[in-house]
Amino acid sequence: MSSGYIRNVDTSSAQARGFTLLEVLIATAILGTAVAALFSLLSGALANTRKMEPAAQALVYAQSKMSELLVQGLAEGPPQTTGPQLVLDQKVGGRFDDQFRWEAIATRSEEASQGVAGAPILVKVDLRVFWGSNGADAQAREKSVALETYQLWREPRGAAQ
């Protein structure tokens, strides 16, 4: 007499429902390899970010200094700030900190435009921010970021007539 609550267990179907030890080991090895590869990619990305950090900081400094110089270039009369002010065909420069320095120059876009004092002229403003200058051969290893723009100025009063 067999009870309705007791069933015969088929051993072939019971084995098909579980994982063997070999399958678990292979899955663990694949997962471990994938995790190791992801960590390797992540560490490479972090290293690249660290390498790009000075360049990104130099770009921020360059944008800030360019804005400051352009505002000063538009000012009439004495400079409104204590920093260097652009003068046509004269290089100005300074330091942000021990690592970053800058140089800027304003030049006429066309030499033929020299003339009457107060006449509008188109001026090209070049700005470079340098970093990475350490040691005796600093100039050779120095890196830089350059920005260039044009601005409408008035011919200075001391212009050649």
Description:
With 161 residues, the chain is of the alpha+beta class. The chain has one domain. The chain is 40% helix and 22% strand. It has 3 helices and 4 strands. The chain has helices at residues 11-16, 21-74, 138-141; strands at 92-95, 101-108, 120-131, 143-154. Strands 1-2-3-4 form a 4-stranded antiparallel β-sheet, covered by helices on one side. The longest helix is centred in the first third of the chain and has 54 residues, at 21-74. It starts with 10 loop residues before the first helix and ends in a 7-residue tail after the last strand. The relative contact order is 0.13.
Structural class: alpha+beta
Helix content: 25-40%
Number of structural domains = 1
Name the poorly predicted regions.
none
Spatial gap, N to C terminus: 125 Å
Shape by Cα distribution: rod-shaped
Amount of beta strand? 15-25%
Lateral strand order in the biggest sheet:
1-2-3-4
Over the alpha carbons, how many angstroms does the gyration radius reach? 34 Å
Average pLDDT rating: 81
- The number of helical segments is 3
Please count the beta strands (DSSP E, at least 2 residues each). 4
What oligomerization state is this entry in?
single chain
Q: State the order of secondary-structure elements, H for helix, E for strand.
A: HHEEEHE
